[in-house]
Amino acid sequence: MSPTPFKLPPAHTVPTLSTRKHIEILSALFEPCPALNTLALEYLAAGPFESYDDLVGIVYGLLADLNGSKTPKNTEWLLKILAAHPRLGAKKIESELSAEEQASLAAANAEEEEALKRLNDEYEKKFPGMRYIAFVNGRSRQIIIKDMEKRISRWDSEAEKEEAIQAMCDIARDRANKLTPQKTV
């Protein structure tokens, strides 16, 4: 018997839920990450949320504030959160949702697989402490490889942090749409 797929509770109920449920929600929408939990839990408890878009917007603001502060401590905190995302094209991905989202990257030839691995390594050398994050959602390896090459050659760590934050939130919004029970008429 397979486990029941995780579904998000109605957004308006989030503030009334337990800390454990808040962590489950954050882990499902973003990735399991103690640093993000520490940053966002009090906001989930406070609410209100008419939709998960509201919740993702709060997290976006928190991440943008961390990025905007430029203090070493806040930068370190932000990088911990960004590093919670799996490497694109990795063989072993802990998050079931990330594995599903990256499925379009799995069916590739050895040359593309090697290019993705090489670009991940190059990206992480050029942007220490960061991980390439993109809203894959079915895009091909060729498109992702071109995007990685463009972003690496740009060599702008501030733009990378902004793109990573935006991508994390785009992914979270997409997950919220998939994990919210649809009303039947």
Please outline the helices and strands.
Layout: H1 19-29, H2 34-46, H3 52-69, H4 72-82, H5 96-101, H6 103-106, H7 110-126, H8 141-154, H9 157-179
Task: Give me some keywords for this one.
globular, Oxo-4-hydroxy-4-carboxy-5-ureidoimidazoline decarboxylase, mainly alpha, 185 residues, UraD-like
Helix content: 55-70%
- Rg measurement, Å: 17 Å
- In CATH terms, the superfamily is Oxo-4-hydroxy-4-carboxy-5-ureidoimidazoline decarboxylase
CATH topology value: UraD-like
The biggest sheet, with number of strands, parallel, antiparallel or mixed sense and barrel status, is: none
Task: Calculate the terminal CA-CA distance, rounded to whole Å.
Answer: 29 Å
Strand content: under 5%
Shape: globular
The count of strands amounts to: 0
Estimated structural class: mainly alpha
Protein name: Oxo-4-hydroxy-4-carboxy-5-ureidoimidazoline decarboxylase
Keywords: Coiled coil, Purine metabolism
Pfam families: OHCU_decarbox
Organism: Tuber borchii
